[in-house]
Amino acid sequence: MLVGVAASSVNGTDLGLRRGAAGPLTWGRLPLTLGFDLSGTVLACGPQVSAFAVGEDVVGLLDHSGGAQAEMVVVDQSRLAAAPTTVALTHAAALPLAGLTALQALHTKAHLHSRPSGTRVLAIGATGGIGAYATQLAALAGAHVSALARREILPVAARLGAHDLLAREDGPLPGRGRFDVIIDTAGALPAGHLSRVLRPGGVVVSVRPVDPAILRAGVTRWLGRRSPTTPGPRSLTAVATRARSQDLARLARLVDSGDLRIPVQAVLGADHAAQAHRLAESATPGKVVITMEPALA
């Protein structure tokens, strides 16, 4: 399918690629066009396309080749879903990568849908791109959500549905065995601290690859401890975001029903991409979106 791109949001992967931190992802592929999620309009369909028609607005997530920050992209229909209709198409570009990561961290990895109502979830970095979605989706699933973020932006977490507000400046979290699920979007707390506040049978889900150094430090040992009085081992895992059309469609429906807000901080034109990256690196709440000139069919 050929899609005319309306906008693409800035994600951590884009920032890492620009800084040269992605290593093997760029070998033999430079120059590289950034952008992994997009919103836009279908311009043309191949003979095997059955889910969309020319003129439909869509959102999607590209593969590791990127390329969404362009006027047009070719993308497989399995990576797309109908765009939500209740928000501007440019804002919808902030949904795919961050929204899918949060949804799959909570439900594919932490199995929140199989846990009882009132399950205690800690969202670390609760107002960032992924964290803002994780906070909302956990609350929608009936969890009791604690948001950890800088004090000045905790009111944002409250508006997203967090029940408890925890300031990062206050230092280590008090208590033991407080949380059933920890979604770590920021890598802000040491592994030993996470082990103390995680309940037996609980899970830590990182949205970043788990550093082998952490595993060598013995995280797997404390996560896997069992005792006769505990319901099961603690676990540590990381989410590798998948471009599942069904999941993306689910997110779009939640947006249209008013249950999920797309947390957009700023929308800038492609000629202000450098400013967009600076904003995305500033740790202010929400997502930064870059708009493209509309492609002509």
Automatic annotation (TrEMBL):
A GO MF label: oxidoreductase activity
Entries under Pfam families matching the protein: ADH_N, ADH_zinc_N_2
Segments forming domain Enoyl reductase (ER): 12-290
Residue ranges that the Swiss-Prot or TrEMBL entry lists as coiled coil: none
Gene3D superfamilies, alphabetized: Medium-chain alcohol dehydrogenases, catalytic domain (3.90.180.10), NAD(P)-binding Rossmann-like Domain (3.40.50.720)
Name the record gives this protein: NAD(P)-dependent alcohol dehydrogenase
Species the sequence originates in: Pseudokineococcus marinus
